[in-house]
Design brief:
The complex is a heterodimer of chains A (233) and B (293). Chain A has 233 residues and is of the alpha/beta class. Chain A contains eleven helices and ten strands. The longest helix of chain A has 16 residues. The mean pLDDT of chain A is 90.
């Protein structure tokens, strides 16, 4: 479904990604793990079109999307939940969700998508008239995921959805992610919470210093020496 | 004495409504694009002339010229944006503020001189059959054209408020003000939003200019004064609050008017800049703005 081939990316003069390649098949739940500053977020920015790569290729469902505009990429079915959620705090929960369905095709099915999001996150329905700025951290994360689902994505990119949340909430969020995946949405999950991510996913890539240094099934990676040493102690 | 003070307060409110209208346009464009359009006053001047010529050559009622002035300003705004500002979108915020300010400064000089060439340096003003008519309340004179201008300004801002709150385009503009990257990630084309907010800013400036040409007078060199007024009011009201900016305009209008009553007309502009400095030092988020997190 998504193929990334030999992508190099720069922030100014600083090279952040070195020949990154990865593939995700339809319906998969794949994790991208690695330490702080490894280039996980950068990889998502490149996929979403926010940071055009210097070289390499990105293909999504047979189309070349390497230098496509970010809004076109959303229209093609890739939606990202950025780090920290970045909900629109000055707007209500409902307005945030409506903005998720900004594009014409998504707008047509807005009512249906809204029902679906409220089914997965009943808490959001209770708070729909509240300003997003008044939500707790966990609720904001739910809203960010809900907003991304409103665009009816085929591929959902999640950047550290567990960041800053209490363990119980992390478990809940991860359960919801599994449910969303079971409904047919392919997911690429970026996580620092490696053990939880590997237990959740079928497959994972390990990113270090801007390079892919390992890949395999969750269980394979849990026994992968450098992963054990680096993340699991 | 009390009546002439009241007269000054009323005059201040009436002119302040136009200050508010001018400032809301600047503030909206700046809030979305981070373009500091110091040619905003010149856009106001163009709107004033558009209305003036529609009145003079076609004999249209000045308030009925507003739709044609709006169409004219939409075209001007789109043209200037495409020609000059669209290239600035990708720059980082601080570079963008500086570069757009320089471009707009050049633009203001060009527009001023073109207007001088085309229309001479004469003061122009629209005089209608009802220009001299005024209501009188407790000895205070309320000229009907200025009163009507206040109503038009208020209606424009309410319409803008509803547009931003209710429509998808308005919500996209608000989302871009809050977090342009997050807005991009929900599929909003921020180039389009930038264009739309630049056009809205030009349109509001044009309407303000048209109202100035009917209640007061216009001249090709009026732009700088209006840009300064709009900047002061924008800072006074605080970014992101339409009603706050409108009230900020009225506060500045009243302060100017009352100052010239007590201290003479020479202090009119000084008091505006003094308020500007005081607000920047003591309440940088503006009187009605909220602190940025």
């Amino acid at each position: 479904m998504l193929e990334i081939e030999g992508v190099d990316a720069f922030y100014g003069d600083l090279q952040a990604l070195w020949g990154v390649s990865l593939r995700i098949e339809e319906g998969e739940l794949v994790a991208l793990i690695g330490p702080n500053g490894a280039g996980k977020t950068t990889t998502l920015q490149v996929i979403s079109g926010l940071l055009p790569p210097a070289s390499g290729r990105i293909r999504f469902r047979g189309h070349d999307v390497t230098r496509e505009r970010p809004d076109r990429i959303v229209a093609m079915g890739i939606s990202q939940v950025p780090e920290g959620g970045r909900v629109f705090t000055g707007m209500t929960v409902l307005e945030n969700l409506e903005l998720g369905a900004f594009l014409p095709e998504a707008r047509r099915d807005k009512a249906e998508s809204l029902k679906r999001v409220f089914r997965i996150f009943p808490r959001l329905e209770e708070r729909k008239a509240q300003r997003a700025g008044t939500l707790s951290g966990g609720e904001r994360q739910m809203l960010a995921i809900g907003r991304a689902l409103m665009s009816k994505p085929k591929l959902l990119l999640l950047d550290e959805p567990s960041f800053g949340l209490a363990p119980l909430l992390v478990e809940q969020i991860f359960a919801m992610i599994t449910e969303i995946n079971a409904q047919g949405v392919t997911i690429l999950l970026v996580e620092q919470n490696v053990r939880a991510a590997l237990e959740l996913t079928q497959r994972a890539y390990v990113l270090e210093n801007g390079r892919i240094v390992g890949q395999g099934s969750g269980n394979e990676l849990l026994s992968f020496e450098s992963v054990r040493r680096a993340y699991l102690g | 004495m009390l009546i002439s003070l009241a007269q000054n307060v009323v005059s201040g409110i009436l002119v302040g409504a136009l200050y508010g209208l001018a400032a809301v346009g600047l503030s909206l464009t700046f809030g979305v694009t981070k373009f500091l359009n110091v040619a905003h006053g010149e856009l106001l001047m163009l709107g004033g002339y558009a209305s003036f010529w529609a009145f003079t050559t076609l004999g249209m009622d000045p308030f009925l010229t507003l739709p044609s002035t709006i169409v004219f300003m939409v075209l001007i705004g789109a043209l200037l944006y495409k020609l000059l500002f669209s290239r600035m979108v990708k720059l980082t915020e601080d570079v963008k503020v500086k570069n757009t300010m320089l471009i707009a400064f050049g633009l203001s000089l060009i527009l001023q001189n073109v207007a001088l060439r085309l229309w001479t340096a004469d003061d122009r003003s629209i005089t209608t059959s009802y220009s001299g008519v005024a209501l009188s309340m407790l000895g205070v004179r309320l000229p009907v054209v200025r009163l009507a201008s206040l109503v038009v300004a208020f209606v424009c801002l309410m319409a803008l408020h509803l547009f931003l709150q209710r429509t998808y385009t308005g919500k996209a503009i608000r989302a871009t003000v809050e977090d342009w990257a997050a807005a991009t990630l929900v599929g909003i084309d921020i180039h389009k939003v930038y264009l739309e907010s630049f056009i809205l800013g030009a349109l509001l400036a044009g309407v303000a200019g048209a109202l100035v040409s009917v209640g007061y007078s216009i001249v090709p060199t009026m732009g700088l004064e209006w840009t300064l007024i709009a900047l002061v009011v924008m800072v006074l009201g605080g970014l992101g609050s339409i009603m706050g900016t409108f009230v900020g305009g009225i506060i500045l209008g009243v302060t100017q008017s009352v100052t010239s009553y007590f201290a003479g007309g020479t202090y009119r502009e000084v008091v505006g800049l003094l308020i500007f400095l005081l607000v920047l030092v003591f309440r940088p988020q503006g009187l009605f703005g909220t602190k940025q997190g």
